[in-house]
Design brief:
Rossmann fold, 3 domains, six-stranded mixed β-sheet, elongated, disordered N terminus
Length: 409
């Protein structure tokens, strides 16, 4: 198996006000990156900083407001602190004075809700040491480690790093290959990349760049053409690629140009398999055929970007789905990692973008509420392939269809 490329794991620091969370972050980073004060509530909204932890590597540290904040504004800070748990790969709960009560239990409940591994730091141990019975009771009840720590003495730093390495999931910092399951040494892969109004000036979009690099890492030859050049290229060179990857917006053109016996999929479908909730996408995508008049569809963009007049998520996908279904549908869009409505029951379908700018954990947690409430989910590329009639071809490189193709009608 090929070694994955390094990512930056997101590590969130949580606890009550004045438990020394910011001091702990500064200690990890080896420099002052968080404001330290004796005044409770100095840290307000969650703040992300990229730094390197000595002995571990590059990470994104998330400094959060105290879970016991007070007042109307404090309540809003607590909501944002809890919401940040969806975005992290590891939670560190900072406690002091051998105190473990309602607030700590609430945080652990949220960690468990989002399947987020966590460990507990008993901070300020230079003032009050971690009691042995207290430590053993928590470790027995919650099956995690409680580590005595002091940002003043730093005498337990190496022990903390050792536990950190054992607790954080490998998937947080190593990414499997995008195409490793699809290609072999020396394969020729044709990438069809339209240069249209949505393409950034002077460069390719991120999924295309990621795919090119991944193919090179897998010792393949990557050939890049625009959709208008495909037919001429194949005719002139007589090259038969081992795999074709296309932008989902031109699935139909690619399907018409590429012989049916050559495997073909889309950039967005590859991302769906790599970091999306692929199994639930496979279940949810065919639900497009069951949409009814008045149904609402939620489109999730995972980054903020310039919106063109023919935007893939806000314009093209709604148009294609409405035309395919023949129904009067309503569409809502949530951009970036903005907070969604607590109640998603009003939606018949949730469509997630490829998620090239966020981690797999962030993407799956974004869809968790919908999945738990039996709301169908899919992603941009798979939805487009479905309504354009080439869904089976797009997913075939990843799915054994057992000679039973999915019925679109």
């Amino acid at each position: 198996m090929k070694k994955g490329r390094e990512l930056k794991p997101h590590i969130g620091i949580y606890g009550r006000r004045n438990n020394g969370k910011s001091s702990f972050i500064n200690c990890l980073a080896g420099q002052d990156i968080a404001i330290v004060s004796n005044v409770a509530g100095t840290t307000t909204d969650p703040v992300k900083k990229s730094y390197e932890i000595t002995g571990f590597g590059p990470v994104v540290l998330v400094d959060t407001a105290g879970i016991d904040d007070v007042g109307e504004l404090g309540g809003k800070r607590i909501v944002k602190t809890l919401a940040s748990i969806k975005l992290i790969d590891l939670g560190i709960l900072v406690i002091v004075n051998n105190t473990f009560d309602y607030y700590e239990k609430m945080l652990i409940k949220e960690f468990e809700k989002y399947d987020t591994p966590y460990l507990i730091i008993h901070n300020k141990s230079d003032l009050v040491e971690l009691a042995t019975k207290f430590k053993l009771k928590i470790e027995d009840n919650y099956k995690t480690r409680v580590i005595q720590f002091s940002t003043i003495k730093k005498d337990n730093f190496e022990a903390f790093i050792d536990v950190l390495k054992k607790t954080i999931p490998e998937s947080a910092y190593k990414q499997p290959s995008l195409t490793g399951d699809l290609v072999s040494y020396g394969d020729i892969v044709l990438l069809i990349t339209p240069i249209d109004i949505e393409a950034p000036a002077g460069r390719l979009i991120l999924p295309q760049i990621q795919t090119i690099r991944d193919l090179l890492d897998n010792d393949c030859t990557a050939i890049i053409v625009k959709e208008r050049e495909v037919d001429a290229f194949l005719k002139k060179t007589k090259i038969r690629p081992d795999l074709v990857i296309t932008d989902s917006s031109i699935f139909l053109k690619a399907d018409a140009s590429i012989p049916k016996d050559i495997p073909m999929t889309g950039f967005s479908v590859i991302l769906a398999k790599l970091k999306g909730d692929f199994d639930n996408y496979l279940i949810g995508t065919p639900k497009i055929s069951e949409l009814k008049d008045g149904d609402k569809i939620l489109l999730l963009e995972s980054c903020s970007h310039h919106i063109s007049c023919d935007d893939i998520g806000r314009v093209k996908i709604p148009r294609w789905i409405s035309n395919y279904s023949g129904k009067k549908l309503h569409y809502d869009v949530v951009s970036g990692l903005d907070k969604m409505k607590n109640d998603l029951s009003e939606y018949a379908l949730v469509i997630q973008c490829g998620g090239c700018m966020i981690t797999s954990k962030q993407l799956k947690n974004r869809l968790k509420d919908a999945v738990n409430n039996n709301i169908s989910v899919t992603n941009y590329g798979m939805a487009i392939a479905y309504v354009q009639g080439i869904y089976n071809r797009a997913i075939k490189p990843f799915v054994e269809l057992n000679n039973q193709e999915i019925d679109y009608l």
